[in-house]
Amino acid sequence: MVTETTTGVITDSKPESACPVCCGLKVTLYREVFDDRYGHPDLFELVRCSDCGHLMTRPSLGESDLAHLYGTYYPRKNITSEQVTTQAAKVQQAFAGIRRWWMGVDNQGQYSARPGEKMLDVGCGSGLSLLEAKAMGVDAWGIEADPNAQRFADQLGLRIHQGGLQDAPFAGTSFDLVVLNQVIEHIPEPDKALQIIQQRLATDGRVVLVFPNVNSLWCKLSGLRWINWHIPYHLHHFTLKTFTRMAERCGYRIVRSRTITPNHWSLLQVRACRQSVARGEANPMWRVEASSVSTAPSAADTLRVRIRRLFRLPVMLVIAIVNRLVDGFGYGDSLIVELRPQDAQRR
Length: 347
Fold this sequence. Notes:
Elements: E1 27-34, E2 43-49, E3 55-58, H1 63-73, H2 81-89, H3 96-103, E4 118-122, H4 128-135, E5 139-144, H5 149-156, E6 160-162, E7 175-181, H6 190-198, E8 201-212, H7 217-222, E9 236-237, H8 240-249, E10 252-260, H9 263-274, H10 284-292, H11 299-328, E11 334-341
Parallel strand pairs: 4-5, 4-7, 5-6, 7-8
Antiparallel strand pairs: 1-2, 2-3, 3-9, 8-11, 10-11
Helix pairs in contact: 2-4, 9-11
Protein backbone atom coordinates (compact mmCIF):
# COMPACT_ATOMS: atom_id res chain seq x y z
CA MET A 1 0.00 0.00 0.00
CA VAL A 2 1.13 3.58 -0.65
CA THR A 3 2.77 5.19 2.36
CA GLU A 4 4.73 7.97 0.65
CA THR A 5 3.99 11.56 1.66
CA THR A 6 5.93 14.64 0.69
CA THR A 7 4.15 17.48 2.45
CA GLY A 8 3.16 16.33 5.90
CA VAL A 9 -0.46 17.32 5.20
CA ILE A 10 -1.69 13.76 5.72
CA THR A 11 -0.88 13.59 9.40
CA ASP A 12 -3.73 11.56 10.82
CA SER A 13 -4.19 8.85 8.19
CA LYS A 14 -6.17 6.04 9.75
CA PRO A 15 -5.22 2.40 10.11
CA GLU A 16 -6.83 0.67 7.16
CA SER A 17 -10.39 0.09 8.35
CA ALA A 18 -13.08 -2.36 7.28
CA CYS A 19 -15.11 -1.77 4.14
CA PRO A 20 -18.11 0.42 5.11
CA VAL A 21 -20.37 -1.55 2.77
CA CYS A 22 -19.79 -5.14 3.90
CA CYS A 23 -17.23 -4.86 6.75
CA GLY A 24 -14.73 -6.86 4.68
CA LEU A 25 -11.05 -6.49 5.54
CA LYS A 26 -9.34 -7.65 2.35
CA VAL A 27 -8.71 -5.33 -0.60
CA THR A 28 -6.95 -5.56 -3.94
CA LEU A 29 -5.17 -2.77 -5.79
CA TYR A 30 -7.22 -1.23 -8.58
CA ARG A 31 -5.11 1.76 -9.68
CA GLU A 32 -2.45 4.15 -8.40
CA VAL A 33 -3.83 7.70 -8.55
CA PHE A 34 -3.05 11.30 -7.63
CA ASP A 35 -4.77 14.68 -7.35
CA ASP A 36 -5.28 15.86 -10.94
CA ARG A 37 -7.18 19.02 -9.94
CA TYR A 38 -5.42 21.06 -7.27
CA GLY A 39 -1.93 19.59 -7.26
CA HIS A 40 -1.68 17.71 -3.95
CA PRO A 41 1.73 16.00 -4.43
CA ASP A 42 1.15 12.65 -2.70
CA LEU A 43 0.44 9.33 -4.37
CA PHE A 44 -2.70 7.38 -3.48
CA GLU A 45 -4.37 4.14 -4.45
CA LEU A 46 -7.82 3.08 -5.51
CA VAL A 47 -8.46 -0.28 -3.88
CA ARG A 48 -11.36 -2.68 -4.33
CA CYS A 49 -12.99 -4.62 -1.50
CA SER A 50 -12.42 -8.30 -2.23
CA ASP A 51 -15.86 -9.22 -0.86
CA CYS A 52 -18.31 -6.67 -2.29
CA GLY A 53 -16.31 -4.74 -4.91
CA HIS A 54 -16.62 -1.32 -3.24
CA LEU A 55 -13.88 1.10 -4.32
CA MET A 56 -11.97 3.17 -1.77
CA THR A 57 -9.09 5.65 -1.74
CA ARG A 58 -6.09 4.70 0.38
CA PRO A 59 -4.45 5.69 2.62
CA SER A 60 -7.59 6.48 4.56
CA LEU A 61 -7.76 9.94 6.06
CA GLY A 62 -8.59 10.94 9.60
CA GLU A 63 -11.07 13.68 10.42
CA SER A 64 -8.27 16.06 11.41
CA ASP A 65 -6.79 15.82 7.90
CA LEU A 66 -9.89 17.18 6.23
CA ALA A 67 -9.76 20.78 7.48
CA HIS A 68 -6.11 21.10 6.41
CA LEU A 69 -6.75 19.58 3.00
CA TYR A 70 -9.74 21.78 2.19
CA GLY A 71 -8.28 24.91 3.71
CA THR A 72 -5.04 24.47 1.74
CA TYR A 73 -6.15 23.17 -1.64
CA TYR A 74 -9.86 23.84 -2.20
CA PRO A 75 -10.69 27.04 -4.15
CA ARG A 76 -13.61 27.99 -1.88
CA LYS A 77 -11.40 30.61 -0.25
CA ASN A 78 -11.66 32.67 -3.47
CA ILE A 79 -15.46 32.92 -3.38
CA THR A 80 -17.12 36.03 -1.96
CA SER A 81 -20.26 36.24 0.14
CA GLU A 82 -21.81 38.51 -2.49
CA GLN A 83 -21.45 35.81 -5.13
CA VAL A 84 -23.08 33.27 -2.83
CA THR A 85 -25.99 35.64 -2.17
CA THR A 86 -26.44 36.33 -5.90
CA GLN A 87 -26.49 32.63 -6.72
CA ALA A 88 -28.94 31.85 -3.91
CA ALA A 89 -31.43 34.43 -5.22
CA LYS A 90 -31.91 32.35 -8.38
CA VAL A 91 -33.89 29.74 -6.44
CA GLN A 92 -36.89 32.10 -6.48
CA GLN A 93 -36.80 32.96 -10.18
CA ALA A 94 -39.62 31.92 -12.49
CA PHE A 95 -39.29 28.38 -13.86
CA ALA A 96 -36.25 27.83 -11.64
CA GLY A 97 -37.10 24.14 -11.16
CA ILE A 98 -37.37 23.49 -14.90
CA ARG A 99 -34.08 25.26 -15.56
CA ARG A 100 -32.36 23.24 -12.85
CA TRP A 101 -33.66 20.02 -14.39
CA TRP A 102 -32.58 20.98 -17.91
CA MET A 103 -29.11 22.02 -16.75
CA GLY A 104 -28.78 18.99 -14.47
CA VAL A 105 -28.18 21.09 -11.37
CA ASP A 106 -31.20 19.78 -9.48
CA ASN A 107 -28.82 17.30 -7.83
CA GLN A 108 -29.10 19.09 -4.49
CA GLY A 109 -31.01 17.80 -1.48
CA GLN A 110 -32.24 21.17 -0.26
CA TYR A 111 -34.65 21.38 -3.20
CA SER A 112 -36.68 18.56 -1.61
CA ALA A 113 -37.15 20.53 1.63
CA ARG A 114 -40.64 21.67 2.58
CA PRO A 115 -41.56 25.04 4.11
CA GLY A 116 -41.41 24.99 7.90
CA GLU A 117 -39.03 22.02 8.09
CA LYS A 118 -35.75 21.98 9.98
CA MET A 119 -32.87 21.05 7.67
CA LEU A 120 -29.27 20.13 8.45
CA ASP A 121 -26.80 20.25 5.55
CA VAL A 122 -23.73 18.17 6.35
CA GLY A 123 -20.90 19.62 4.27
CA CYS A 124 -22.68 22.87 3.45
CA GLY A 125 -19.62 24.55 1.92
CA SER A 126 -20.19 28.27 1.39
CA GLY A 127 -23.69 28.08 2.85
CA LEU A 128 -25.39 28.48 -0.53
CA SER A 129 -27.80 25.62 0.24
CA LEU A 130 -28.72 27.24 3.56
CA LEU A 131 -29.58 30.55 1.87
CA GLU A 132 -31.64 28.73 -0.77
CA ALA A 133 -33.46 26.76 1.92
CA LYS A 134 -34.15 29.95 3.87
CA ALA A 135 -35.67 31.50 0.73
CA MET A 136 -37.91 28.42 0.48
CA GLY A 137 -39.19 28.92 4.04
CA VAL A 138 -36.96 26.25 5.60
CA ASP A 139 -35.11 26.58 8.92
CA ALA A 140 -31.54 25.58 8.08
CA TRP A 141 -28.31 24.63 9.87
CA GLY A 142 -25.00 23.49 8.40
CA ILE A 143 -21.80 21.58 9.18
CA GLU A 144 -18.58 22.14 7.20
CA ALA A 145 -15.01 20.87 7.68
CA ASP A 146 -13.45 23.62 5.56
CA PRO A 147 -12.34 26.46 7.88
CA ASN A 148 -13.28 28.94 5.14
CA ALA A 149 -16.92 28.27 6.06
CA GLN A 150 -16.61 30.43 9.16
CA ARG A 151 -16.23 33.53 7.02
CA PHE A 152 -19.51 32.81 5.23
CA ALA A 153 -21.25 32.07 8.52
CA ASP A 154 -20.13 35.40 9.96
CA GLN A 155 -20.84 37.53 6.88
CA LEU A 156 -24.16 35.92 5.91
CA GLY A 157 -25.53 35.26 9.39
CA LEU A 158 -25.70 31.49 8.89
CA ARG A 159 -25.65 28.74 11.51
CA ILE A 160 -22.63 26.75 10.35
CA HIS A 161 -20.60 24.54 12.65
CA GLN A 162 -16.99 24.34 11.49
CA GLY A 163 -16.05 20.74 12.15
CA GLY A 164 -17.69 17.36 11.65
CA LEU A 165 -20.65 15.21 12.60
CA GLN A 166 -18.66 13.58 15.38
CA ASP A 167 -18.70 16.93 17.22
CA ALA A 168 -22.47 16.50 17.78
CA PRO A 169 -23.25 20.18 17.04
CA PHE A 170 -26.66 21.82 17.62
CA ALA A 171 -27.39 19.55 20.57
CA GLY A 172 -31.05 19.09 21.34
CA THR A 173 -32.22 19.88 17.80
CA SER A 174 -33.86 17.18 15.67
CA PHE A 175 -34.10 17.61 11.92
CA ASP A 176 -36.87 16.81 9.46
CA LEU A 177 -34.35 16.64 6.63
CA VAL A 178 -30.62 15.94 6.65
CA VAL A 179 -28.85 16.71 3.38
CA LEU A 180 -25.45 15.53 2.16
CA ASN A 181 -24.71 17.10 -1.23
CA GLN A 182 -21.61 15.45 -2.73
CA VAL A 183 -20.39 14.74 0.82
CA ILE A 184 -20.78 11.08 1.84
CA GLU A 185 -17.89 10.13 -0.46
CA HIS A 186 -15.63 12.57 1.45
CA ILE A 187 -16.29 11.05 4.89
CA PRO A 188 -13.68 8.54 6.15
CA GLU A 189 -16.30 6.26 7.73
CA PRO A 190 -19.58 6.88 5.88
CA ASP A 191 -21.40 4.01 7.60
CA LYS A 192 -20.76 5.53 11.01
CA ALA A 193 -21.88 8.93 9.69
CA LEU A 194 -25.21 7.45 8.61
CA GLN A 195 -25.67 5.93 12.05
CA ILE A 196 -24.97 9.28 13.74
CA ILE A 197 -27.38 11.05 11.39
CA GLN A 198 -30.18 8.65 12.24
CA GLN A 199 -30.00 9.77 15.86
CA ARG A 200 -30.55 13.40 14.78
CA LEU A 201 -33.70 12.76 12.73
CA ALA A 202 -37.10 13.93 13.89
CA THR A 203 -40.11 11.63 13.68
CA ASP A 204 -40.71 10.89 10.00
CA GLY A 205 -37.35 12.51 9.22
CA ARG A 206 -35.51 11.66 6.04
CA VAL A 207 -32.01 11.86 4.58
CA VAL A 208 -31.23 12.98 1.03
CA LEU A 209 -27.76 12.24 -0.32
CA VAL A 210 -26.12 13.10 -3.62
CA PHE A 211 -22.86 11.43 -4.63
CA PRO A 212 -20.92 10.42 -7.77
CA ASN A 213 -22.08 7.28 -9.55
CA VAL A 214 -19.19 4.95 -10.41
CA ASN A 215 -21.58 3.09 -12.70
CA SER A 216 -22.15 6.19 -14.84
CA LEU A 217 -21.66 6.34 -18.59
CA TRP A 218 -19.12 9.15 -18.24
CA CYS A 219 -17.06 7.06 -15.80
CA LYS A 220 -17.06 4.10 -18.18
CA LEU A 221 -16.00 6.30 -21.09
CA SER A 222 -13.39 8.36 -19.22
CA GLY A 223 -11.61 5.73 -17.13
CA LEU A 224 -9.05 7.23 -14.76
CA ARG A 225 -9.69 10.68 -16.22
CA TRP A 226 -13.23 10.71 -14.83
CA ILE A 227 -13.44 13.99 -12.94
CA ASN A 228 -15.35 12.46 -10.05
CA TRP A 229 -12.55 10.23 -8.80
CA HIS A 230 -11.40 13.58 -7.32
CA ILE A 231 -8.41 12.14 -5.42
CA PRO A 232 -7.72 12.37 -2.49
CA TYR A 233 -10.89 14.21 -1.44
CA HIS A 234 -13.25 11.41 -2.49
CA LEU A 235 -12.50 8.52 -0.16
CA HIS A 236 -15.36 6.23 -1.25
CA HIS A 237 -16.70 5.52 -4.72
CA PHE A 238 -20.24 4.14 -4.72
CA THR A 239 -22.61 2.49 -7.11
CA LEU A 240 -26.31 2.36 -6.25
CA LYS A 241 -25.85 -1.32 -5.37
CA THR A 242 -22.98 -0.78 -2.92
CA PHE A 243 -24.58 2.29 -1.36
CA THR A 244 -27.88 0.47 -0.89
CA ARG A 245 -26.11 -2.38 0.87
CA MET A 246 -24.37 0.04 3.23
CA ALA A 247 -27.55 2.02 3.94
CA GLU A 248 -29.55 -1.12 4.74
CA ARG A 249 -26.80 -2.36 7.05
CA CYS A 250 -27.03 0.99 8.87
CA GLY A 251 -30.78 0.68 9.41
CA TYR A 252 -32.19 2.60 6.44
CA ARG A 253 -34.44 1.85 3.51
CA ILE A 254 -34.25 3.63 0.17
CA VAL A 255 -37.45 5.51 -0.63
CA ARG A 256 -36.41 6.70 -4.09
CA SER A 257 -33.33 7.20 -6.23
CA ARG A 258 -32.38 8.53 -9.64
CA THR A 259 -29.31 9.76 -11.49
CA ILE A 260 -28.56 13.34 -12.51
CA THR A 261 -25.73 14.68 -14.68
CA PRO A 262 -24.94 18.40 -14.49
CA ASN A 263 -24.30 19.64 -18.01
CA HIS A 264 -21.27 21.64 -16.92
CA TRP A 265 -19.76 18.45 -15.48
CA SER A 266 -19.92 16.89 -18.94
CA LEU A 267 -18.26 19.90 -20.51
CA LEU A 268 -15.51 19.72 -17.89
CA GLN A 269 -15.21 15.99 -18.51
CA VAL A 270 -14.60 16.50 -22.22
CA ARG A 271 -11.91 19.04 -21.42
CA ALA A 272 -10.36 16.76 -18.79
CA CYS A 273 -10.05 13.92 -21.30
CA ARG A 274 -8.09 16.22 -23.59
CA GLN A 275 -5.66 17.34 -20.88
CA SER A 276 -3.11 15.66 -18.68
CA VAL A 277 -1.17 16.95 -15.70
CA ALA A 278 1.82 15.59 -13.82
CA ARG A 279 1.60 14.55 -10.21
CA GLY A 280 1.87 17.61 -7.95
CA GLU A 281 0.83 19.97 -10.75
CA ALA A 282 -2.34 22.05 -10.44
CA ASN A 283 -4.64 21.59 -13.43
CA PRO A 284 -5.12 24.92 -15.26
CA MET A 285 -8.72 23.95 -16.00
CA TRP A 286 -9.61 24.00 -12.31
CA ARG A 287 -7.25 26.84 -11.42
CA VAL A 288 -8.96 29.17 -13.92
CA GLU A 289 -12.36 28.37 -12.40
CA ALA A 290 -11.05 29.13 -8.93
CA SER A 291 -9.45 32.46 -9.82
CA SER A 292 -12.22 33.73 -12.08
CA VAL A 293 -14.82 33.88 -9.30
CA SER A 294 -13.02 36.72 -7.55
CA THR A 295 -11.95 38.84 -10.55
CA ALA A 296 -14.14 41.57 -12.04
CA PRO A 297 -14.07 41.04 -15.86
CA SER A 298 -13.18 43.86 -18.23
CA ALA A 299 -15.42 44.85 -21.14
CA ALA A 300 -13.17 42.93 -23.55
CA ASP A 301 -13.29 39.86 -21.32
CA THR A 302 -17.08 40.08 -21.15
CA LEU A 303 -17.31 40.26 -24.96
CA ARG A 304 -15.02 37.25 -25.37
CA VAL A 305 -17.12 35.28 -22.88
CA ARG A 306 -20.32 36.12 -24.76
CA ILE A 307 -18.83 35.08 -28.10
CA ARG A 308 -17.55 31.85 -26.58
CA ARG A 309 -20.98 31.11 -25.13
CA LEU A 310 -22.61 31.73 -28.52
CA PHE A 311 -20.41 29.13 -30.20
CA ARG A 312 -20.86 26.76 -27.25
CA LEU A 313 -24.67 26.81 -27.39
CA PRO A 314 -25.05 23.95 -29.93
CA VAL A 315 -22.59 21.81 -27.94
CA MET A 316 -24.43 22.43 -24.68
CA LEU A 317 -27.77 21.62 -26.34
CA VAL A 318 -26.46 18.24 -27.46
CA ILE A 319 -24.92 17.59 -24.02
CA ALA A 320 -28.20 18.47 -22.28
CA ILE A 321 -30.27 16.14 -24.48
CA VAL A 322 -27.79 13.27 -24.06
CA ASN A 323 -27.56 13.78 -20.30
CA ARG A 324 -31.32 13.80 -19.76
CA LEU A 325 -31.61 10.55 -21.74
CA VAL A 326 -28.70 8.94 -19.89
CA ASP A 327 -30.17 10.03 -16.56
CA GLY A 328 -33.45 8.41 -17.51
CA PHE A 329 -31.71 5.06 -17.95
CA GLY A 330 -29.92 5.37 -14.60
CA TYR A 331 -26.39 5.95 -15.90
CA GLY A 332 -25.99 9.61 -14.93
CA ASP A 333 -22.89 10.98 -13.24
CA SER A 334 -24.42 11.50 -9.80
CA LEU A 335 -26.95 9.60 -7.73
CA ILE A 336 -29.59 11.28 -5.59
CA VAL A 337 -31.01 8.96 -2.95
CA GLU A 338 -33.66 9.51 -0.28
CA LEU A 339 -33.44 7.39 2.86
CA ARG A 340 -35.73 6.79 5.80
CA PRO A 341 -35.01 4.69 8.88
CA GLN A 342 -36.24 1.13 8.47
CA ASP A 343 -38.34 1.48 11.63
CA ALA A 344 -39.72 4.91 10.64
CA GLN A 345 -43.29 3.61 10.68
CA ARG A 346 -42.89 2.84 14.37
CA ARG A 347 -41.25 6.11 15.36
